[in-house]
Amino acid sequence: MSKLRVLHVIGGGEFGGAEQHILNLVSTFSKEDVEAAVVCFYDSLFASKLREAGITVYALNQFGRFDLRLLRALRDTFHAFDPAIIHTHGVKANFFSRLASRGMGVPLLTTVHSSLRYDYASPLAYAIVSLMERGTRHWNRHYIAISEALAAILREQGVPARDISVIYNGMDLSPYRQSATRAADRARLRAEWGIAEDAFLFGTVARFVPVKGLPVLVDAFAELVQGMQTPPSLVLVGDGPERARLEQQVRERGLEALVRFAGFRQDIPACLNACDAFVHSSFYEGLGYTIIEAMASEVPVVASNVGGVKEFVFDEQTGLVVDPGDHAALSKAMARLQQSADLRQSMVKQAVEKVESSFTIEEMTKQIVSLYRQLLG
């Protein structure tokens, strides 16, 4: 069986779920079966992580946001690498790759990581990216949806079911399953954040953007701690354009003593080890990487019942679920988690079983390589 040459293309200006997915995937490919490289439009943290993992990176960061010279540079890269398959991620990568690859006879595969409607809050921005995406879909061969919820959106938009494969994002669970460092991580980070060892700590990990619903979480937390003599604490791990607004909301609510902003961090397994419960407040989620990470870390979760989350967070089994945007319901669910150790223990056990059966990087990689060969066959 011949070796596959696969070229992944992504904007790569930040390090989120799509970037982590690519890093997981290309690092797990069998070197005997697949020769992979990644094109990034920015030479950023993601490109650095790829290089650290020994992955070939083509960084095209000399161009502006929508500089048409990017088309020529991308096409030159395609010819230089000579891929059997081009695998794209994200609207900008999809758009430019579909244009740049015309006439090459190379099948294009796109992974859909999220819903555009929730990625772009501005109606004008959403209209533009929708035109970019849908106007070039006829040049695309196949789609991977990372959840059935995203596959349903594609079907509603007219993509034939035969052109869609649902393949859950897999991840390396081992950093989240290591219990030896949990006590040390908990002590170290709580000391860093100024949180008492015996305080009940709620945590979340997210980009600070509107779709993540973080103001709803702050409102829920404010309601939870009202009148408590020994209130819990909350740590928000991440960064983004909404940070200033969230910090202002915390001040207005008088929560400065209880809420910590940890900033962008790369030691997420350690951060989760420091938490007693994980809270997810998004208005939409294609799948929910951070929830899976929390579940693998044996941290009980409460999550918005949206998108792909519905496919693995089952109420009172693998977690608690609430309607998105309902801060009162979220507050009550958080209270239940804090008050019932038995509930937390029961859900953690089932959650670990679920992630270990559904979200391993090995299973994801096997399915994607099989799909590559089907497309070429």
TrEMBL record:
Q: What is the lineage of its organism?
A: Bacteria, Bacillati, Bacillota, Bacilli, Bacillales
Q: What is its EC number?
A: 2.4.-.-
Keyword flag Nucleotidyltransferase: no
Determine if Iron is one of this entry's keywords: no
Q: Where is the Glycosyltransferase subfamily 4-like N-terminal domain?
A: 15-174
Top-rank lineage group of the source organism: Bacteria
Gene3D superfamilies referenced in this protein's UniProt entry, alphabetically: Glycogen Phosphorylase B (3.40.50.2000)
Pfam family, any one: Glyco_transf_4
Q: Which InterPro entries match?
A: Glyco_trans_1 (IPR001296), Glyco_trans_4-like_N (IPR028098), Glycosyltransferase_grp1 (IPR050194)
* MF term (GO), any: glycosyltransferase activity
Keyword set for this entry?
Glycosyltransferase, Transferase
Protein name per its UniProtKB record: Glycosyltransferase
